From TrEMBL:
Coiled coil residues, start to end: none
Protein name: Transcription factor CBF/NF-Y/archaeal histone domain-containing protein
CC terms in the record's Gene Ontology section: CCAAT-binding factor complex
GO molecular function per UniProt: DNA-binding transcription activator activity, RNA polymerase II-specific; protein heterodimerization activity; RNA polymerase II cis-regulatory region sequence-specific DNA binding
Pfam families: CBFD_NFYB_HMF
């Protein structure tokens, strides 16, 4: 599946490079891409791939080598998705001990949470970019959650982040006293 996405993104990016940056891509163009691993064809929406291209361009704008790899669609699956073992472990925490989770369910959840994280961090990254900052911090993530309509998650996360920072401050103070 990642090979399909990588191939699709690579072709989309190369196609987009034929336009100059002021011309938008076609509004609705479904194109077929060949999956060389499975010998079948898949359709992808050009607009979704263009959005991926734009996100990749923003994220890697300061690192030319990284940008070259991403412009060719060479994002490894493990770099794009959360580890499936971690996703499965989190899913099991909410289920009864004897419950089974199919591989397909884990993979679906893996894709969903990875996309969600990318969506939120992309919004936070845009904010940092506008403010001419290079580092995304916890406050930016909380802001992004709120601005994207996830207020029910934003406020508790802000409180947790505040408590975490207090705890870290106390821990550092305790360690420095012990060293003296």
């Amino acid at each position: 599946m990642v090979d399909n996405i990588s191939y699709s993104n690579r072709e989309t990016i190369l196609h987009h490079q034929q336009y100059n940056n002021n011309n938008p891509p076609p509004q609705s163009s479904n194109t077929q891409h060949h999956d060389y691993n499975n010998n079948n064809y898949n359709s992808y929406n050009y607009n979704n791939n263009h959005q991926l291209y734009q996100q990749n361009r923003l994220i890697s704008s300061n690192d030319q080598e990284h940008e070259d790899h991403q412009s060719l669609g060479l994002i490894k699956e493990q770099d794009r998705l959360l580890p499936i073992a971690n996703v499965g472990r989190i899913m099991k925490q909410i289920l009864p001990p004897n419950a089974k989770i199919s591989k397909e369910a884990k993979e679906t959840m893996q894709e969903c949470v990875s996309e969600f994280i990318s969506f939120v961090t992309g919004e936070a990254s845009d904010k940092c970019h506008k403010e001419k900052r290079k580092t995304v911090n916890g406050d930016d993530i909380c802001w992004a959650l709120g601005s994207l309509g996830f207020d029910d998650y934003s406020e508790p996360l802000k409180r947790y982040l505040h408590r975490h920072r207090e705890f870290e401050g106390e821990r550092v103070a305790t360690q420095s006293k012990e060293r003296q």
